[in-house]
Amino acid sequence: MIPLTHFLIVSACLFAIGLYAVLSRRNAIMVLVGIELMINASILNLVAFGRYDKTLYGGQVFALFAIVLAAAAVAVALAIILNVYKFYKSVNPEDINHLKD
Amino acid sequence: MLSTVLTYPVLAALTAVALPLLAFLLSAALGRRARSGSIAVASISLSLVAAAYVFGQVWNQESIRVQWEWFTVGSHRFLVGLTLDNLSAMMLLLVCVIAWPVHVYSVAYMKGDSGIHRYWAYLSLFCFAMLGLVIADNLLLMYIFWELVGFASYLLIGFWFTKESAVQANKKAFLVNRIGDLGFLIGIALVYSHLGTLDTEALTATPETFPATWHTVAGLAFFLGAMAKSAQFPLHVWLPDAMEGPTAVSSLIHAATMVAAGVFLLARIHPLFDGNTLMVIAVTGTVTALVAACFALTQYDIKKILAFSTISQLGFMMVGIGIGLFPVALFHLATHAFFKCLLFLCAGAVIHQMHHVAESQQHEIDPQDIRNMGGLRRHMPVTFATMLIASLALAGFPFTSGYLSKDALIVHTFEWAALQSGFAKVIPYLLLAVSALTSFYILRLLAKVFFGSFRVGLKDTSMLHEAPLSMRIPMVFLAACSLFPLFSMHPLNDGHVWLMQGLTTTVSSLPPLRLLHLAVPVLTTLATCVSAMMAWRWYVSSRYPLKTDSLPYRWSYNQGYLNPFYEWVIVRPLLRLSHFLFWMDLRIVDGIVNGLASLGRSLAAAASWMDMRIVDGLVRLSGKVAWWLGNLFRRLQTGRVQHYFTTVFLIILVILIYHIVVLL
User: Which end of chain B is more exposed for a tag (fewer CB within 10 A), N or C?
Assistant: First the structure.
């Protein structure tokens, strides 16, 4: 049986890769992909820890919820990116700095 | 006693006094528009008429006193008023009679002077002060006019105030007179504290209540006042310097207005003097007469000779007061007023001509130096004739008024000295000697100015001519008054002088010495003749026997070195003292004040520094910190979503590290 630590290490690596993508990519789609990676890392954690809840499978259920919410969030985010692209003619987060107003 | 009834003589006297005041105010108000002097001349002419009327009404009649309430100090009421008796009526008329020709003379003499409007105003003020002085009935009022006389003379002596010497001279006159004024004031204070009144009439009635010592001190204090005003040795030094004023002013000062005030004061309060004071007055008068005559012998300035002659004659008058015979002194004052005024007016005419010569020839000569004159007899016959009469009157030659007064004075002094002992016995002989000296110096003046030949190299002597008519009329008028008929129908006997008879209130207790009435006139006339011969030989025939560098000559020429003496003994130490006091004031007194001020300033500066740096500093520091923090956090808000993520990540990282490091 694979020990819990390995799941956590894979999850941490995924989170780190996702974080890196979010912070450094110059394309909003890739940032969205980074976010998805981070969500998946956390879902992996949920599933991994769900092993300790054998009666109700709370971890598995919560992971399913999270996947649905992530899908919804991606849909909303993609819509935002489309609108941003229409407005700025760019999906580079460097060019979009109007959040400070 | 208190009478406020305005009778005609009182009104006339008030008019006589008020008119010059009115003229002064009018001239002062008009300023430069009143240059002709017609206001002053008209006012003094009307004053003369009024004074003549007063004299006619009052002379040898009951004296008139009018008094009004002046002010009240505590429970004591001060009365102010005027008194018209023989003395004041005589002086009132005398002042007007002398002032009138001087005014008329000034019209021509001062013509063209740029400050002539001031001249007329001052002259009117001077006359007003003197006229007020003679009719005042109490010492305080007299003192006020006394000061006014001094002030007006100060203005007139310094009339040409752009000349440094004139400024020095009027300052000197004023300061020396202040010494006398102090004496007068002390006298007034003593009289008031002991008699409780300043009324001159009350003064004559009750001198017995005076403690003997204070009686003498008061007498001496009044005499000190008279000494300064009437230029008695050693306070005479201002009078020769006062020659810096216009000559017409000098004649007024010397004849009737200024120096007469001192003699008049002593005559007015003569019952106040006791034996000691009278002796001091007589001795001072003698010393003055002698010393001034000696100084007059060697002077070259025509006006200085006359100035010293005035001082010498004032000494005679003081002797007259000192021997207790004030009518004699006043008689001499009256005769002297005429001939001395005339002498000055003649000298003025001569100076006027010399001035023209100096101006037209571009000669650098002093128009007052008798060494430059000579032979003016031929060019100015009227001036010569009138000046000769005045000089003979001064010398006491028979048929002149001076003969009557001077002989009366010397004879009475002999009579007085017969009752005295010690030094007093010498006084009449000294006066005789002074009389001879007088004859010599005035005839020296005549010989130098009018005889011989003109001493300035002048090709054309036609420019030397007689003074204008308006100057000659006053001179001739005064010359007529310098002869005997004005005072006595008997030319050689002074027993019939109406003026002395009118002023004499008590029968003289002096034993008459018949022989003297013959011996004294003969001696003085002889002295005059001898000095005339000497003057002719020495100065006209130029056989001058004396060395001009001998010690007595230099002593006389330098006026006894009195001025340098005063300069060294009084003026310099006083100046040094005041410089020291000034230094004290500047360094110590001001130093303390300034030190306190700078201490306060430095304290304030320290407090200000504290306020600026510490109090304000704290406030500003908090502001700065807030600004700096704000500036710091402002940078975080870049508007880029990735930066926000980074920030959040870093913060979470920090919290995590904190947890790991601290909590584990």
Answer: C
